[in-house]
């Protein structure tokens, strides 16, 4: 399987969850604990990115082919992310009453550095030996260890009173590692490098896993996982919240690796595909709409969601999609030119 259609629906759900959580932070939201913990959507985004971007490296390792080229990969990421992000920063500076450095710092210190790290990390985790069962298990253990890094990091920055360090990559790397580990497991299982296990049974009961994810999210919505606003948690609360979010992400993502027909219909249909395309724009433009909105929770949520969707749709159609097409056409033209150039032609 090279495409995972149910990822689309999960990505759209994550985007809506993030917007709801952000609105809840600015208003007196009902069920404040649950609403605030919907920021787990950030973790879901990270895990999906880790899964989709690391999987080509694993496939190349297993098939003994060259891994994805770094420059085309970075170019593709930049074309997908930067247009909407730059527009958001400009709009935020123009209309949102906060210092411009707030948005620049948010843009630089959020998980974007992972995209720069991935090519090297992918080569490190898929090189040096053949993909035997032993080597696969060893790498899975490394990725499991990385999933603990995020919660430990957040507890450490809380204990040392350095909250800005919570925006650095180590605070998010564990969520990316969840997706990377699932990518490695999925390819290894599909190619027979790993044998059957109890995990295969779990893929056939998605409702059970999603129920567990919901239960863990409700636990995180208690004061055990910290305050519901921007107040600093204790180190123990930060650690518990990070661990719970990691478990929620794993339970949410795992069933879509081998989805049932019903799961594909619900999470991979046309509405989910459209939602996935707009998900990134909905999140980033949601910050702009929310920054100029004031009102009760229900009103602010409705206006923010509608405004973010409208802006995201316009941005995708008028800017992001043309930029992506231009980049794709340019890459195709370069490839065709290199193939037909005299230097690449056989000697006569």
TrEMBL record:
| Source domain of life | Bacteria
Transmembrane spans? 12-34, 40-57, 78-97, 103-126, 138-159, 165-187, 208-226, 238-257, 278-295, 301-319
BP GO terms, sorted: lipopolysaccharide biosynthetic process
Protein name per its UniProtKB record: Acyltransferase
Q: Which InterPro entries match?
A: Acyltransferase_3
Q: Does the keyword NADP apply?
A: no
Is Membrane included in the keywords of this UniProt record? yes
Q: Which GO terms describe its molecular function?
A: acyltransferase activity
UniProt keyword list: Acyltransferase, Membrane, Transferase, Transmembrane, Transmembrane helix
Its GO CC terms are: membrane
């Amino acid at each position: 399987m090279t495409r995972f259609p149910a990822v689309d629906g999960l990505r759209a759900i994550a985007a809506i969850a993030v917007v709801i959580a952000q609105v809840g932070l600015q208003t007196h939201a009902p069920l404040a604990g649950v609403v605030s913990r919907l920021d787990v959507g950030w973790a879901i985004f990270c895990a999906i990115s880790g899964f989709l971007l690391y999987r080509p490296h694993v496939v190349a390792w297993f098939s003994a082919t060259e891994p994805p080229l770094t420059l085309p990969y970075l170019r593709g990421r930049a074309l997908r992310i930067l247009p909407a992000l730059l527009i958001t920063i400009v709009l935020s500076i123009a209309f949102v009453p906060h210092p411009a450095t707030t948005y620049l710092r948010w843009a630089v210190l959020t998980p974007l550095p992972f995209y720069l790290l991935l090519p090297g990390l992918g080569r490190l985790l898929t090189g040096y030996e053949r993909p035997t069962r032993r080597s696969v298990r060893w790498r899975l253990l490394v990725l499991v260890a990385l999933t603990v890094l995020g919660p430990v990091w957040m507890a450490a920055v809380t204990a040392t009173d350095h909250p800005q360090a919570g925006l650095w990559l180590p605070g998010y790397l564990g969520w990316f590692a969840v997706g990377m580990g699932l990518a490695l497991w999925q390819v290894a299982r599909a190619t027979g490098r790993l044998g059957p296990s109890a995990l295969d049974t779990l893929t056939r009961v998605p409702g059970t896993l999603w129920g567990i994810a919901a239960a863990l999210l409700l636990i995180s919505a208690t004061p055990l996982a910290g305050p519901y606003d921007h107040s600093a948690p204790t180190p123990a609360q930060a650690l518990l919240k990070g661990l719970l979010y990691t478990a929620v992400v794993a339970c949410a993502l795992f069933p879509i690796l081998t989805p049932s027909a019903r799961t594909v219909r619900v999470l991979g249909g046309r509405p989910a595909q459209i939602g996935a395309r707009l998900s990134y724009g909905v999140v980033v433009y949601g910050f702009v709409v929310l920054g100029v909105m004031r009102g009760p929770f229900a009103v602010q949520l409705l206006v923010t969601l509608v405004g973010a969707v409208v802006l995201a749709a316009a941005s995708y159609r008028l800017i992001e999609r043309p930029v992506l097409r231009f980049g794709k056409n340019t890459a195709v033209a370069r490839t065709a030119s290199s193939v037909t150039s005299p230097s690449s032609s056989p000697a006569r």
